[in-house]
Amino acid sequence: MEHLISPNQIIEEISLIPDDKMTELYDLIHNFKMFSNQSENNINQIMHFAGCWENMSDQDFTDFCGDMEQRRQTHHGDLPMKPCLLDSDKNRCKSTH
Predict the structure, then answer these.
(1) Which of 1, 17, 62, 89 is least enclosed, having the fewest CB within 10 Å?
(2) Taking the CA of residue 30 as centre, how many other CA atoms within 13 Å lie in the half-sphere pointing to its CB?
């Protein structure tokens, strides 16, 4: 089981930090808090789309993959492309190579 640190332990450690380092500590805590909130928001936004292709027919999925490949080549022509086909046994994309 993971050892939980109490707020009192954190406050105790903070009290040992020299005054001239408080600005750095504040920035660290503030950035950590901002990053944590941002990560949680990003996860929620991404998960909103989870499963949205679940009921897509094989043909629609193949067409979608072809469209995505064409867009990537148009906008990122220098990147190597691997066509995406539906692996119906595993319900996910598989490479044709």
Answers:
(1) 1
(2) 6
The residue among 74, 49, 72, 75 whose CA lies nearest residue 83 is: 72
Is 80 exposed, middle or buried, given 0-12, 13-18 or 19+ CB atoms closer than 10 A? Answer: exposed
Residue 86 burial (C-beta neighbours within 10 Å; 0-12, 13-18, 19+): buried
List 85's β-bridge partners, or say none.
94
Do 68 and 84 meet the contact criterion of CB atoms below 8 Å apart? yes
Both tokens of residue 56?
């897509």
Q: What is the pLDDT of residue 97?
A: 43
* Residues in the chain with pLDDT values less than 50: 95-97
In this prediction the pTM is 0.36
